[in-house]
């Protein structure tokens, strides 16, 4: 954990409790911190499986704290305070706040000031803070990642009993199948409770012994983390620049294995129904598996998360080609039909620019209408969530 945080925070071995991945760690913390019916605040958009992991067996509730693109979806004090107040007014007991930093699905890290605001907020209210730091080392450009463990080292007034960290080897070390996660709590009672509960999600001794050998090779781990972040950075650049050439922008991101693509201009109208319709077209016609923002409880329609790291470069290029055909297809047809021989480069550039201003017009509107009006429109729940 220390190495994944660049050695800037120290952790005590006694406070570590193993679990079945971050999934198990998050659930264990909910069992330890809340009773059925209690609630946790979660800034949006948030990791879709929180709905399952945090709630299904514990009976806790999730109260979304809406964030928006005007400030890159960073949570504000105002959003926290107003959601907290509104929940209290309806009699809901808020037990804490949980967030993923770096964020899934945003691919961004929390700024120091935002993290301080959050820590001050939970400390004022005396509620818990769970930081899921599963992507701690999967950060590839500035600003770097700051763990809550670093922040509280500098905030003496904060009640540390309220702070809990979740980590896992699934992302940074690329070992999701090993099911190795960690609860790290500054609260003795939580450590003790989580340890007792860990019987329900033990990591096998074979796995532990194998990993102990691997992780004790410090040089290997350091080199591995550096290499991964270089490769993810390269892949991120390839993908976002490829999209940019087509006039598609992404939320500026510096971490994680995905980007949030901004397709708001392609929606017929700014509704989640249109988002779903577009998602259907992308799945059925473009044959690319993207996730619509609504599955992450995004407050604005038109954002789609794309994973760019779980495939080789050729596959990524194929994906980009498909998106390009989809987005530029209509324009190319028009150009070919209308000005077969007269069309010179200058004109084409001009058309491309005007097309980019209005992507909505750029693909077959019939194809879109057909799906938008389809009564069979399905929700994009992943097989994971249907399980
Ligand atoms: C933010 C976040 N938390 C938890 C998990 C689940 O991780 P694990 O495989 O370690 O259970 C994921 C996986 O995508 C994730 O993105």
Automatic annotation (TrEMBL):
From the record, what ranges are coiled-coil? none
Q: Which domain of life is it from?
A: Eukaryota
Question: Which CDD domains does the annotation name?
Answer: AAT_like (cd00609)
Q: What is this protein called?
A: 1-aminocyclopropane-1-carboxylate synthase-like protein 1
Family, similarity comment: Belongs to the class-I pyridoxal-phosphate-dependent aminotransferase family.
Residues annotated as domain Aminotransferase class I/classII large = 6-323
Reply yes or no: does the keyword Ribonucleoprotein apply. Answer: no
InterPro entries hit by this protein: Aminotransferase_I/II_large, Ethylene_sulfur-biosynth, NHTrfase_class1_PyrdxlP-BS, PyrdxlP-dep_Trfase, PyrdxlP-dep_Trfase_major, PyrdxlP-dep_Trfase_small
* Pfam families xref list: Aminotran_1_2
Is the keyword Transcription regulation in the record?
A: no
Name the keywords, alphabetized: Pyridoxal phosphate
């Amino acid at each position: 954990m220390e190495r994944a945080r660049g050695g800037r925070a120290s952790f005590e071995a006694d406070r570590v409790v193993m679990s079945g991945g971050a999934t198990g760690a998050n659930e264990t913390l909910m069992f330890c911190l809340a009773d059925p019916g209690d609630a946790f605040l979660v800034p949006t958009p948030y990791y879709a499986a929180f709905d399952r992991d945090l709630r299904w067996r514990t009976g806790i509730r999730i109260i979304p704290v809406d964030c928006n693109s005007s400030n890159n979806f960073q949570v504000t004090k105002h959003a926290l305070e107003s959601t907290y107040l509104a929940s209290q007014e309806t009699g809901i007991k808020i037990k804490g706040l949980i967030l993923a930093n770096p964020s899934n699905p945003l691919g961004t890290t929390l700024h120091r000031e935002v993290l301080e605001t959050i820590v001050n907020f939970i400390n004022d209210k005396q509620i818990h803070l769970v930081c899921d730091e599963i992507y701690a080392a999967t950060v590839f450009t500035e600003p770097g990642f700051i763990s809550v463990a670093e922040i509280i080292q500098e905030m003496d007034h904060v009640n540390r009993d309220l702070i809990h960290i979740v980590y896992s080897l699934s992302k940074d070390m690329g070992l999701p199948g090993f099911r190795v996660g960690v609860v790290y709590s500054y609260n003795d009672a939580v450590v003790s409770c989580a340890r007792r509960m860990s019987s329900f999600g033990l990591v096998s001794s074979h796995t532990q012994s194998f990993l102990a050998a691997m992780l004790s090779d410090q040089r290997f781990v350091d080199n591995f983390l550096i290499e991964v972040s270089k490769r993810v950075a390269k892949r991120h650049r390839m993908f976002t620049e490829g999209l940019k050439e087509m006039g598609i922008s992404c939320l500026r991101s510096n971490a994680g294995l995905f980007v949030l693509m901004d397709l708001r201009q392609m929606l017929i109208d700014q509704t989640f129904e249109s988002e779903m319709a577009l998602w259907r077209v992308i799945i059925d016609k473009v044959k690319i598996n993207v996730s619509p923002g609504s599955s992450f409880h995004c407050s604005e329609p038109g954002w789609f998360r794309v994973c760019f790291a779980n495939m080789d470069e050729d596959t990524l290029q194929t994906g980009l080609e498909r998106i390009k055909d989809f987005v530029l297809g209509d324009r190319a047809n028009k150009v070919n039909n209308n000005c077969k021989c007269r069309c010179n480069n200058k004109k084409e550039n001009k058309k491309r620019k005007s097309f980019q201003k209005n992507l909505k017009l750029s693909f077959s509107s019939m194809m879109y209408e057909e799906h938008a009006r389809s009564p069979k429109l399905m929700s994009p729940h992943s097989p994971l969530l249907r399980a």
